[in-house]
Backbone:
């Protein structure tokens, strides 16, 4: 059984992939981030208030690892303005930073145990 899971939430669609190791999970996540970024930016939406592209999540790519109770968890939010925000945690998300996409993936790898 694969030890890592990548869950992609993009619009109303949710997909899950099971992978053998962290490197494979990060490679899958990078491919998904690239695919979302090619779709372009989101516009502003008005509901009860206005949500600008930098406030809207275009897609969320979650990575969870093996563990008895809860393994390492984190992921990336692709924002509507094209920014990518890496984080750790599932319930309490903590940004891991990174000026570039490569730095964000490197920091996420460090935090998840790679």
Residues:
């Amino acid at each position: 059984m694969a030890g890592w899971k990548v869950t992609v939430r993009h619009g109303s669609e949710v997909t899950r992939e099971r992978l053998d190791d962290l490197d494979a999970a990060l490679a899958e996540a990078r491919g998904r981030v690239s695919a979302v970024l090619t779709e372009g930016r989101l516009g502003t939406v008005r509901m009860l208030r206005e949500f600008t592209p930098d406030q809207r999540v275009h897609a969320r790519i979650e990575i969870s690892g093996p563990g008895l109770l809860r393994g390492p968890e984190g992921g990336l939010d692709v924002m509507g303005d094209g920014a990518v925000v890496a984080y750790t945690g599932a319930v309490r998300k903590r940004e891991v930073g990174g000026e570039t996409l490569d730095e964000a993936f490197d920091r996420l790898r460090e935090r998840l145990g790679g």
Observations:
- The longest strand covers residues 57-64.
- The longest helix spans residues 22-37.
- The chain is about 25% helix and 35% strand.
